[in-house]
Design brief:
This protein has 554 residues and is α+β, with helices and mostly antiparallel strands. It has 2 domains: 2-19 and 54-72 and 195-344 and 442-551, Outer membrane efflux proteins (OEP); 100-138 and 144-182 and 363-422. The chain is built from 13 helices and 8 strands. The strands form 2 sheets. The chain has a 6-stranded antiparallel sheet with strand order 2-3-4-5-7-8. The longest helix has 68 residues, at 428-495. It starts with a helix and ends with a helix.
Protein backbone atom coordinates (compact mmCIF):
# COMPACT_ATOMS: atom_id res chain seq x y z
CA UNK A 1 0.00 0.00 0.00
CA UNK A 2 2.80 2.41 0.77
CA UNK A 3 4.22 1.71 -2.70
CA UNK A 4 0.82 2.47 -4.22
CA UNK A 5 0.63 5.76 -2.28
CA UNK A 6 4.01 6.85 -3.60
CA UNK A 7 2.91 6.10 -7.19
CA UNK A 8 -0.29 8.06 -6.75
CA UNK A 9 1.70 10.93 -5.22
CA UNK A 10 4.07 11.02 -8.18
CA UNK A 11 1.16 10.95 -10.64
CA UNK A 12 -0.50 13.79 -8.75
CA UNK A 13 2.67 15.88 -8.78
CA UNK A 14 3.13 15.33 -12.51
CA UNK A 15 -0.49 16.29 -13.22
CA UNK A 16 -0.24 19.37 -10.99
CA UNK A 17 3.05 20.44 -12.56
CA UNK A 18 1.62 19.93 -16.04
CA UNK A 19 -1.39 22.06 -15.26
CA UNK A 20 0.73 24.86 -13.79
CA UNK A 21 3.15 24.70 -16.72
CA UNK A 22 0.21 25.31 -19.03
CA UNK A 23 -0.86 28.30 -16.94
CA UNK A 24 2.69 29.65 -16.65
CA UNK A 25 4.98 28.56 -19.51
CA UNK A 26 8.04 30.08 -17.86
CA UNK A 27 10.30 27.71 -15.97
CA UNK A 28 9.54 27.41 -12.27
CA UNK A 29 12.85 25.81 -11.41
CA UNK A 30 14.33 28.11 -8.73
CA UNK A 31 17.77 26.71 -9.46
CA UNK A 32 17.66 28.26 -12.94
CA UNK A 33 20.05 31.25 -13.08
CA UNK A 34 18.67 34.79 -13.25
CA UNK A 35 19.84 36.45 -16.49
CA UNK A 36 19.71 40.21 -15.88
CA UNK A 37 19.11 41.13 -19.52
CA UNK A 38 16.15 43.50 -19.97
CA UNK A 39 16.17 42.81 -23.73
CA UNK A 40 15.72 39.05 -23.21
CA UNK A 41 12.30 37.46 -23.71
CA UNK A 42 10.40 37.32 -20.44
CA UNK A 43 7.56 35.23 -19.18
CA UNK A 44 3.90 36.08 -19.79
CA UNK A 45 3.87 37.19 -16.18
CA UNK A 46 5.49 40.41 -17.35
CA UNK A 47 6.62 42.50 -14.41
CA UNK A 48 5.56 45.77 -15.98
CA UNK A 49 2.09 44.62 -16.95
CA UNK A 50 1.78 42.88 -13.60
CA UNK A 51 2.56 46.18 -11.89
CA UNK A 52 0.62 48.55 -14.13
CA UNK A 53 -1.94 46.47 -15.99
CA UNK A 54 -1.98 47.32 -19.71
CA UNK A 55 -0.12 50.62 -19.35
CA UNK A 56 2.01 51.27 -22.48
CA UNK A 57 5.73 50.72 -22.11
CA UNK A 58 8.43 53.09 -23.35
CA UNK A 59 11.69 51.36 -24.13
CA UNK A 60 14.53 53.57 -22.99
CA UNK A 61 18.30 53.30 -23.15
CA UNK A 62 20.54 55.07 -20.66
CA UNK A 63 21.71 57.50 -23.33
CA UNK A 64 18.11 58.34 -24.22
CA UNK A 65 17.20 58.73 -20.55
CA UNK A 66 19.97 61.27 -20.01
CA UNK A 67 19.15 63.12 -23.22
CA UNK A 68 15.45 63.35 -22.33
CA UNK A 69 16.22 64.23 -18.71
CA UNK A 70 18.41 67.17 -19.71
CA UNK A 71 15.74 68.35 -22.12
CA UNK A 72 12.57 67.86 -20.07
CA UNK A 73 13.63 67.42 -16.45
CA UNK A 74 12.25 70.19 -14.26
CA UNK A 75 14.96 69.83 -11.62
CA UNK A 76 17.63 71.03 -14.06
CA UNK A 77 15.29 73.54 -15.68
CA UNK A 78 15.17 75.57 -12.46
CA UNK A 79 18.96 75.63 -12.33
CA UNK A 80 19.25 76.99 -15.89
CA UNK A 81 18.05 80.38 -14.73
CA UNK A 82 20.98 80.88 -12.34
CA UNK A 83 23.63 82.05 -14.85
CA UNK A 84 21.11 84.27 -16.65
CA UNK A 85 20.06 85.94 -13.42
CA UNK A 86 23.72 86.42 -12.44
CA UNK A 87 24.44 88.04 -15.82
CA UNK A 88 21.51 90.41 -15.31
CA UNK A 89 22.91 91.35 -11.90
CA UNK A 90 26.29 92.07 -13.52
CA UNK A 91 24.71 94.19 -16.26
CA UNK A 92 22.79 96.05 -13.56
CA UNK A 93 26.04 96.79 -11.71
CA UNK A 94 27.56 98.32 -14.85
CA UNK A 95 24.54 100.61 -14.87
CA UNK A 96 26.19 102.63 -12.10
CA UNK A 97 28.39 104.11 -14.85
CA UNK A 98 25.53 105.11 -17.12
CA UNK A 99 25.49 108.92 -17.63
CA UNK A 100 22.50 110.62 -16.03
CA UNK A 101 20.55 113.48 -17.55
CA UNK A 102 19.08 115.77 -14.92
CA UNK A 103 16.97 118.91 -14.85
CA UNK A 104 14.98 120.93 -12.34
CA UNK A 105 12.84 124.07 -12.41
CA UNK A 106 11.63 126.42 -9.68
CA UNK A 107 9.43 129.50 -9.63
CA UNK A 108 9.31 131.89 -6.64
CA UNK A 109 7.32 135.03 -5.90
CA UNK A 110 8.72 137.15 -3.05
CA UNK A 111 7.46 140.43 -1.57
CA UNK A 112 9.87 141.92 1.00
CA UNK A 113 9.10 145.02 3.14
CA UNK A 114 11.89 147.62 3.07
CA UNK A 115 13.08 150.33 5.49
CA UNK A 116 15.89 152.18 3.67
CA UNK A 117 16.34 155.59 2.09
CA UNK A 118 17.94 154.03 -1.00
CA UNK A 119 14.71 152.51 -2.20
CA UNK A 120 11.55 154.29 -3.27
CA UNK A 121 9.40 151.23 -2.54
CA UNK A 122 7.99 150.07 0.78
CA UNK A 123 7.87 146.57 -0.67
CA UNK A 124 10.29 145.02 -3.13
CA UNK A 125 8.61 142.41 -5.28
CA UNK A 126 10.57 139.67 -7.04
CA UNK A 127 9.35 136.98 -9.38
CA UNK A 128 12.12 134.44 -9.95
CA UNK A 129 12.12 131.56 -12.44
CA UNK A 130 15.20 129.34 -12.16
CA UNK A 131 16.30 125.99 -13.48
CA UNK A 132 19.26 123.92 -14.54
CA UNK A 133 19.92 120.85 -16.65
CA UNK A 134 22.93 118.76 -17.50
CA UNK A 135 24.72 115.43 -17.62
CA UNK A 136 26.56 113.71 -14.77
CA UNK A 137 28.10 110.38 -13.88
CA UNK A 138 31.25 108.55 -12.85
CA UNK A 139 33.93 106.77 -14.86
CA UNK A 140 34.74 103.07 -14.37
CA UNK A 141 37.89 101.94 -12.58
CA UNK A 142 39.35 105.23 -11.31
CA UNK A 143 36.00 106.56 -10.03
CA UNK A 144 36.21 110.04 -11.55
CA UNK A 145 32.98 111.97 -11.10
CA UNK A 146 31.93 114.45 -13.79
CA UNK A 147 29.11 116.90 -14.34
CA UNK A 148 28.31 119.26 -17.21
CA UNK A 149 25.44 121.63 -16.51
CA UNK A 150 23.68 124.73 -17.77
CA UNK A 151 21.76 126.86 -15.24
CA UNK A 152 19.67 129.96 -15.73
CA UNK A 153 17.51 132.23 -13.55
CA UNK A 154 15.25 135.08 -14.62
CA UNK A 155 14.28 137.74 -12.05
CA UNK A 156 11.62 140.39 -12.50
CA UNK A 157 11.70 143.07 -9.75
CA UNK A 158 10.43 146.55 -8.94
CA UNK A 159 13.56 147.43 -6.92
CA UNK A 160 14.89 150.87 -7.84
CA UNK A 161 18.43 149.61 -7.21
CA UNK A 162 18.30 146.94 -9.88
CA UNK A 163 19.46 148.07 -13.30
CA UNK A 164 17.88 145.14 -15.15
CA UNK A 165 14.37 143.74 -14.99
CA UNK A 166 14.02 141.10 -16.13
CA UNK A 167 17.55 140.14 -15.10
CA UNK A 168 18.76 136.84 -16.63
CA UNK A 169 21.82 135.06 -15.20
CA UNK A 170 23.19 131.93 -16.86
CA UNK A 171 26.09 129.56 -16.30
CA UNK A 172 27.62 126.90 -18.49
CA UNK A 173 30.37 124.78 -16.95
CA UNK A 174 31.85 121.44 -16.02
CA UNK A 175 32.93 119.95 -12.69
CA UNK A 176 35.33 117.03 -12.18
CA UNK A 177 35.85 115.22 -8.86
CA UNK A 178 38.77 112.81 -8.57
CA UNK A 179 39.34 110.64 -5.47
CA UNK A 180 43.04 110.46 -4.64
CA UNK A 181 43.06 108.09 -1.65
CA UNK A 182 39.78 106.57 -0.45
CA UNK A 183 37.57 105.32 -3.32
CA UNK A 184 40.37 105.50 -5.85
CA UNK A 185 39.69 102.39 -7.98
CA UNK A 186 38.18 100.37 -5.11
CA UNK A 187 35.03 102.42 -4.73
CA UNK A 188 31.61 100.89 -4.16
CA UNK A 189 30.39 100.71 -7.80
CA UNK A 190 33.65 99.22 -9.12
CA UNK A 191 33.87 96.70 -6.28
CA UNK A 192 30.29 95.63 -6.95
CA UNK A 193 31.07 95.12 -10.65
CA UNK A 194 34.12 92.97 -9.87
CA UNK A 195 32.26 90.89 -7.27
CA UNK A 196 29.34 90.28 -9.63
CA UNK A 197 31.76 89.27 -12.38
CA UNK A 198 32.93 86.56 -10.01
CA UNK A 199 29.29 85.82 -9.21
CA UNK A 200 28.51 85.34 -12.89
CA UNK A 201 31.36 82.86 -13.24
CA UNK A 202 30.30 81.13 -10.02
CA UNK A 203 26.72 80.82 -11.30
CA UNK A 204 28.00 79.02 -14.40
CA UNK A 205 30.11 76.71 -12.23
CA UNK A 206 27.13 76.06 -9.96
CA UNK A 207 24.99 75.15 -12.97
CA UNK A 208 27.77 72.81 -14.11
CA UNK A 209 27.76 71.16 -10.68
CA UNK A 210 23.98 70.75 -10.78
CA UNK A 211 24.23 69.37 -14.32
CA UNK A 212 26.74 66.73 -13.22
CA UNK A 213 24.60 65.81 -10.22
CA UNK A 214 21.52 65.54 -12.44
CA UNK A 215 23.27 63.20 -14.88
CA UNK A 216 24.45 61.09 -11.95
CA UNK A 217 20.93 61.00 -10.50
CA UNK A 218 19.46 59.87 -13.82
CA UNK A 219 22.08 57.14 -14.16
CA UNK A 220 21.52 55.89 -10.62
CA UNK A 221 17.73 55.96 -11.04
CA UNK A 222 18.03 54.06 -14.34
CA UNK A 223 20.09 51.23 -12.86
CA UNK A 224 17.94 51.19 -9.75
CA UNK A 225 14.83 50.66 -11.86
CA UNK A 226 16.50 47.72 -13.60
CA UNK A 227 17.58 46.26 -10.26
CA UNK A 228 14.10 46.56 -8.75
CA UNK A 229 12.57 45.19 -11.92
CA UNK A 230 14.78 42.11 -11.60
CA UNK A 231 14.08 41.88 -7.87
CA UNK A 232 10.36 41.85 -8.63
CA UNK A 233 10.87 39.14 -11.24
CA UNK A 234 12.84 37.02 -8.77
CA UNK A 235 10.13 37.49 -6.15
CA UNK A 236 7.44 36.52 -8.64
CA UNK A 237 9.43 33.47 -9.70
CA UNK A 238 9.92 32.49 -6.06
CA UNK A 239 6.16 32.81 -5.47
CA UNK A 240 5.42 30.55 -8.43
CA UNK A 241 7.90 27.97 -7.14
CA UNK A 242 6.28 28.05 -3.69
CA UNK A 243 2.86 27.53 -5.24
CA UNK A 244 4.10 24.49 -7.19
CA UNK A 245 5.57 23.09 -3.99
CA UNK A 246 2.29 23.73 -2.17
CA UNK A 247 0.35 21.85 -4.87
CA UNK A 248 2.82 18.98 -4.59
CA UNK A 249 2.56 18.88 -0.82
CA UNK A 250 -1.25 18.97 -0.89
CA UNK A 251 -1.27 16.03 -3.31
CA UNK A 252 1.09 14.11 -1.04
CA UNK A 253 -1.16 14.91 1.93
CA UNK A 254 -4.23 13.70 0.08
CA UNK A 255 -2.59 10.31 -0.57
CA UNK A 256 -1.31 10.18 2.99
CA UNK A 257 2.42 10.56 2.32
CA UNK A 258 2.90 13.74 4.37
CA UNK A 259 1.23 15.30 7.38
CA UNK A 260 -0.96 18.40 7.61
CA UNK A 261 1.96 20.28 9.25
CA UNK A 262 3.98 20.11 6.06
CA UNK A 263 1.03 21.47 4.08
CA UNK A 264 0.82 24.36 6.54
CA UNK A 265 4.56 25.01 6.12
CA UNK A 266 4.12 25.12 2.35
CA UNK A 267 1.17 27.51 2.69
CA UNK A 268 3.29 29.77 4.95
CA UNK A 269 5.98 29.73 2.29
CA UNK A 270 3.48 30.96 -0.32
CA UNK A 271 2.18 33.70 2.00
CA UNK A 272 5.72 34.93 2.76
CA UNK A 273 6.62 35.07 -0.92
CA UNK A 274 3.36 36.77 -1.78
CA UNK A 275 4.32 39.50 0.69
CA UNK A 276 7.75 39.73 -0.96
CA UNK A 277 6.08 40.30 -4.34
CA UNK A 278 3.91 43.08 -2.90
CA UNK A 279 6.95 44.79 -1.34
CA UNK A 280 9.06 44.40 -4.49
CA UNK A 281 6.26 45.76 -6.69
CA UNK A 282 5.92 48.82 -4.47
CA UNK A 283 9.66 49.51 -4.70
CA UNK A 284 9.56 48.95 -8.44
CA UNK A 285 6.75 51.45 -8.93
CA UNK A 286 8.57 53.95 -6.72
CA UNK A 287 11.61 53.62 -8.98
CA UNK A 288 9.37 54.16 -12.00
CA UNK A 289 8.13 57.42 -10.48
CA UNK A 290 11.65 58.58 -9.68
CA UNK A 291 12.98 57.90 -13.18
CA UNK A 292 9.96 59.39 -14.95
CA UNK A 293 10.25 62.50 -12.76
CA UNK A 294 13.94 62.89 -13.60
CA UNK A 295 13.60 62.11 -17.29
CA UNK A 296 10.16 63.33 -18.36
CA UNK A 297 9.37 65.98 -15.78
CA UNK A 298 5.81 67.21 -16.25
CA UNK A 299 4.74 63.92 -17.85
CA UNK A 300 4.62 62.35 -14.39
CA UNK A 301 0.89 62.20 -13.64
CA UNK A 302 -1.25 60.93 -10.74
CA UNK A 303 -2.19 58.05 -13.04
CA UNK A 304 0.75 56.97 -15.18
CA UNK A 305 0.18 57.14 -18.94
CA UNK A 306 3.20 54.93 -19.58
CA UNK A 307 5.96 53.05 -17.79
CA UNK A 308 9.65 52.91 -18.64
CA UNK A 309 11.24 49.70 -19.82
CA UNK A 310 15.06 50.08 -19.63
CA UNK A 311 16.99 48.37 -22.43
CA UNK A 312 20.61 48.56 -21.22
CA UNK A 313 22.14 45.43 -19.76
CA UNK A 314 23.82 45.86 -16.37
CA UNK A 315 25.70 42.58 -16.89
CA UNK A 316 28.03 44.36 -19.31
CA UNK A 317 30.71 45.07 -16.73
CA UNK A 318 34.35 45.95 -17.24
CA UNK A 319 37.16 45.94 -14.74
CA UNK A 320 38.75 49.38 -14.74
CA UNK A 321 42.43 50.01 -14.16
CA UNK A 322 42.41 53.50 -12.67
CA UNK A 323 45.54 55.62 -12.20
CA UNK A 324 44.85 57.55 -9.00
CA UNK A 325 47.24 60.40 -9.76
CA UNK A 326 45.72 60.89 -13.19
CA UNK A 327 42.19 60.63 -11.80
CA UNK A 328 42.88 63.34 -9.19
CA UNK A 329 44.52 65.52 -11.85
CA UNK A 330 41.36 65.24 -13.96
CA UNK A 331 39.23 66.09 -10.95
CA UNK A 332 41.27 69.22 -10.23
CA UNK A 333 40.75 70.29 -13.83
CA UNK A 334 37.08 69.45 -14.28
CA UNK A 335 35.38 69.52 -10.88
CA UNK A 336 33.19 72.67 -10.55
CA UNK A 337 33.45 72.50 -6.76
CA UNK A 338 37.10 73.55 -6.97
CA UNK A 339 36.26 76.35 -9.40
CA UNK A 340 33.57 77.56 -6.98
CA UNK A 341 36.10 77.60 -4.14
CA UNK A 342 38.51 79.66 -6.26
CA UNK A 343 35.69 82.06 -7.16
CA UNK A 344 35.07 82.54 -3.46
CA UNK A 345 38.74 83.44 -2.93
CA UNK A 346 38.53 86.01 -5.76
CA UNK A 347 35.38 87.53 -4.30
CA UNK A 348 36.92 87.81 -0.85
CA UNK A 349 40.02 89.43 -2.33
CA UNK A 350 37.91 92.15 -3.95
CA UNK A 351 36.08 92.76 -0.68
CA UNK A 352 39.43 93.02 1.10
CA UNK A 353 40.70 95.57 -1.44
CA UNK A 354 37.57 97.66 -0.96
CA UNK A 355 37.86 97.51 2.83
CA UNK A 356 41.52 98.53 2.54
CA UNK A 357 40.58 101.55 0.43
CA UNK A 358 37.93 102.61 2.93
CA UNK A 359 40.57 102.79 5.68
CA UNK A 360 42.36 105.61 3.86
CA UNK A 361 41.60 109.30 4.47
CA UNK A 362 39.19 111.00 2.12
CA UNK A 363 41.16 113.22 -0.24
CA UNK A 364 39.34 114.45 -3.33
CA UNK A 365 40.41 117.01 -5.92
CA UNK A 366 37.53 119.03 -7.36
CA UNK A 367 37.84 121.33 -10.40
CA UNK A 368 35.19 123.55 -11.99
CA UNK A 369 35.47 125.44 -15.28
CA UNK A 370 32.71 127.50 -16.95
CA UNK A 371 31.27 130.77 -18.11
CA UNK A 372 28.82 133.17 -16.42
CA UNK A 373 26.37 135.05 -18.61
CA UNK A 374 24.18 138.09 -17.97
CA UNK A 375 21.41 139.60 -20.05
CA UNK A 376 18.15 141.43 -19.58
CA UNK A 377 16.25 144.69 -20.15
CA UNK A 378 16.53 148.07 -18.40
CA UNK A 379 14.44 148.27 -15.26
CA UNK A 380 11.86 151.02 -15.61
CA UNK A 381 11.75 151.43 -11.84
CA UNK A 382 15.49 151.98 -11.64
CA UNK A 383 16.80 155.27 -10.20
CA UNK A 384 19.91 156.58 -11.98
CA UNK A 385 22.23 157.93 -9.27
CA UNK A 386 24.74 159.10 -11.88
CA UNK A 387 22.54 161.85 -13.23
CA UNK A 388 19.53 162.39 -15.39
CA UNK A 389 18.51 159.79 -17.96
CA UNK A 390 17.76 156.09 -17.83
CA UNK A 391 19.81 153.64 -15.82
CA UNK A 392 22.91 152.20 -17.43
CA UNK A 393 25.44 149.52 -16.45
CA UNK A 394 29.18 149.25 -16.66
CA UNK A 395 28.63 145.81 -18.22
CA UNK A 396 26.85 147.40 -21.23
CA UNK A 397 25.86 151.02 -21.57
CA UNK A 398 23.10 150.25 -24.02
CA UNK A 399 19.49 150.34 -22.95
CA UNK A 400 19.01 146.67 -23.87
CA UNK A 401 21.81 144.20 -23.23
CA UNK A 402 22.76 141.42 -25.65
CA UNK A 403 20.36 138.48 -25.40
CA UNK A 404 21.47 135.07 -24.08
CA UNK A 405 24.96 136.31 -23.30
CA UNK A 406 26.56 132.88 -22.54
CA UNK A 407 25.85 131.63 -26.04
CA UNK A 408 26.29 135.01 -27.73
CA UNK A 409 29.97 135.45 -26.91
CA UNK A 410 29.83 137.68 -23.87
CA UNK A 411 31.23 135.37 -21.24
CA UNK A 412 32.57 135.69 -17.73
CA UNK A 413 35.20 132.99 -17.25
CA UNK A 414 35.03 131.14 -13.93
CA UNK A 415 37.16 128.28 -12.59
CA UNK A 416 37.85 126.81 -9.20
CA UNK A 417 40.25 124.24 -7.78
CA UNK A 418 39.33 122.58 -4.50
CA UNK A 419 40.76 119.93 -2.22
CA UNK A 420 38.57 117.98 0.22
CA UNK A 421 40.14 116.08 3.11
CA UNK A 422 38.60 114.17 6.00
CA UNK A 423 39.40 111.26 8.26
CA UNK A 424 37.44 109.91 11.21
CA UNK A 425 39.38 110.03 14.46
CA UNK A 426 40.23 106.48 15.48
CA UNK A 427 38.84 105.04 12.24
CA UNK A 428 37.75 101.93 14.18
CA UNK A 429 34.83 100.89 11.98
CA UNK A 430 36.83 100.80 8.76
CA UNK A 431 39.90 99.26 10.39
CA UNK A 432 37.94 96.36 11.84
CA UNK A 433 36.05 95.91 8.59
CA UNK A 434 39.43 95.49 6.86
CA UNK A 435 40.60 93.01 9.50
CA UNK A 436 37.42 90.97 8.99
CA UNK A 437 37.89 91.03 5.21
CA UNK A 438 41.44 89.70 5.64
CA UNK A 439 40.18 86.83 7.80
CA UNK A 440 37.46 85.98 5.26
CA UNK A 441 40.09 85.95 2.51
CA UNK A 442 42.33 83.61 4.46
CA UNK A 443 39.40 81.32 5.25
CA UNK A 444 38.50 81.15 1.55
CA UNK A 445 42.05 80.07 0.72
CA UNK A 446 41.79 77.37 3.36
CA UNK A 447 38.53 76.26 1.74
CA UNK A 448 40.41 75.60 -1.52
CA UNK A 449 42.78 73.25 0.30
CA UNK A 450 39.84 71.55 2.02
CA UNK A 451 38.06 71.12 -1.33
CA UNK A 452 41.18 69.60 -2.87
CA UNK A 453 41.37 67.14 0.02
CA UNK A 454 37.69 66.29 -0.40
CA UNK A 455 38.30 65.62 -4.08
CA UNK A 456 41.15 63.25 -3.26
CA UNK A 457 38.90 61.43 -0.80
CA UNK A 458 36.07 61.24 -3.35
CA UNK A 459 38.34 59.78 -6.02
CA UNK A 460 39.97 57.27 -3.67
CA UNK A 461 36.59 56.14 -2.33
CA UNK A 462 35.13 55.87 -5.83
CA UNK A 463 38.04 53.75 -7.07
CA UNK A 464 37.94 51.54 -4.01
CA UNK A 465 34.15 51.10 -4.26
CA UNK A 466 34.41 50.22 -7.93
CA UNK A 467 37.04 47.56 -7.27
CA UNK A 468 35.00 46.18 -4.38
CA UNK A 469 31.82 46.17 -6.48
CA UNK A 470 33.47 44.22 -9.28
CA UNK A 471 34.74 41.63 -6.82
CA UNK A 472 31.28 41.59 -5.23
CA UNK A 473 29.70 40.61 -8.55
CA UNK A 474 32.07 37.66 -8.89
CA UNK A 475 31.44 36.60 -5.28
CA UNK A 476 27.66 36.94 -5.64
CA UNK A 477 27.68 34.83 -8.81
CA UNK A 478 29.64 32.06 -7.10
CA UNK A 479 27.24 32.13 -4.16
CA UNK A 480 24.24 32.06 -6.50
CA UNK A 481 25.58 29.01 -8.37
CA UNK A 482 26.24 27.22 -5.06
CA UNK A 483 22.76 28.03 -3.75
CA UNK A 484 21.17 26.83 -6.99
CA UNK A 485 23.06 23.51 -6.74
CA UNK A 486 22.04 23.09 -3.10
CA UNK A 487 18.39 23.68 -4.03
CA UNK A 488 18.60 21.18 -6.87
CA UNK A 489 20.02 18.57 -4.49
CA UNK A 490 17.36 19.30 -1.89
CA UNK A 491 14.59 18.84 -4.46
CA UNK A 492 16.06 15.48 -5.45
CA UNK A 493 16.07 14.49 -1.79
CA UNK A 494 12.42 15.57 -1.54
CA UNK A 495 11.52 13.40 -4.52
CA UNK A 496 13.07 10.41 -2.73
CA UNK A 497 11.31 11.19 0.52
CA UNK A 498 14.52 12.23 2.29
CA UNK A 499 13.55 15.90 2.73
CA UNK A 500 10.54 18.05 3.55
CA UNK A 501 8.87 21.03 1.82
CA UNK A 502 10.15 23.20 4.65
CA UNK A 503 13.78 22.29 3.85
CA UNK A 504 13.19 22.94 0.15
CA UNK A 505 11.71 26.33 0.96
CA UNK A 506 14.77 27.17 3.06
CA UNK A 507 17.07 26.29 0.18
CA UNK A 508 14.87 28.21 -2.24
CA UNK A 509 14.94 31.26 0.06
CA UNK A 510 18.73 31.09 0.14
CA UNK A 511 18.81 31.04 -3.66
CA UNK A 512 16.52 34.07 -3.80
CA UNK A 513 18.79 35.88 -1.36
CA UNK A 514 21.84 35.13 -3.49
CA UNK A 515 20.07 36.19 -6.67
CA UNK A 516 19.07 39.46 -5.02
CA UNK A 517 22.63 39.85 -3.82
CA UNK A 518 23.80 39.48 -7.42
CA UNK A 519 21.28 42.07 -8.54
CA UNK A 520 22.42 44.45 -5.79
CA UNK A 521 26.09 43.85 -6.68
CA UNK A 522 25.43 44.80 -10.30
CA UNK A 523 23.59 47.94 -9.23
CA UNK A 524 26.39 48.89 -6.82
CA UNK A 525 28.92 48.37 -9.59
CA UNK A 526 27.01 50.66 -11.95
CA UNK A 527 26.51 53.30 -9.26
CA UNK A 528 30.23 53.08 -8.38
CA UNK A 529 31.25 53.54 -12.01
CA UNK A 530 29.00 56.61 -12.20
CA UNK A 531 30.39 57.91 -8.90
CA UNK A 532 33.96 57.59 -10.22
CA UNK A 533 32.99 59.54 -13.33
CA UNK A 534 31.43 62.22 -11.11
CA UNK A 535 34.41 62.29 -8.74
CA UNK A 536 36.76 62.86 -11.68
CA UNK A 537 34.47 65.51 -13.14
CA UNK A 538 34.36 63.62 -16.45
CA UNK A 539 30.74 62.50 -16.32
CA UNK A 540 29.66 65.00 -18.97
CA UNK A 541 32.46 64.02 -21.36
CA UNK A 542 31.54 60.37 -20.91
CA UNK A 543 28.07 61.11 -22.30
CA UNK A 544 29.22 63.71 -24.88
CA UNK A 545 27.19 66.45 -23.21
CA UNK A 546 27.83 69.99 -24.50
CA UNK A 547 27.22 72.40 -21.62
CA UNK A 548 26.45 75.36 -23.90
CA UNK A 549 23.62 73.44 -25.55
CA UNK A 550 22.19 72.15 -22.28
CA UNK A 551 22.35 75.53 -20.51
CA UNK A 552 20.12 77.33 -23.04
CA UNK A 553 16.69 78.22 -21.67
CA UNK A 554 13.87 76.15 -23.09
Amino acid sequence: MRWLGVVLCVLGVVASASTRAQEHPASNDPSEPIIMDPTAKRSDVDIVRQAEGDTPRVKLSLHEAIEEGLRKGLRLETERYGPYIANEDLASAWGAYDPELFANYQYSSISSPQATQLLNQAFVNQNIAAGDAGLRGILPFIGTGYQVNYSIDRTVTNSSLSTLSPNVNSFLGATVTQPLLRNLIWNQPWTRVKILQVGSSAASDEFLRQLMDTVQSIENAYWQLIARSETLRVADKSLETAKVLLDQTQTQYEVGVVSKVEVTEAEAGVATRDFDVITSKNLYLRSQDQLIDLVYGEELRPVLKFVVDPTDNPEDTTRYDVNLDLAVEKAYRFRPELALAKNEVQRREYEMQYAKSQRLPLLDAVGTYGYQGLTGSVNRSCVNFRGPGPCTSAFDDRNVLAANDVWGGRRGLQWTAQGIFSIPIGNNERSHAYDKAQLEYRRANTLIKRTEQDIILDVRNAVRNLESAYEGIESAERSRIAAAEQLRAERIRLEHGESTPFDVLLRERELVNQEQRKIAALQIYRDSATALDRAQGTILQSHNIVVEEVSALR
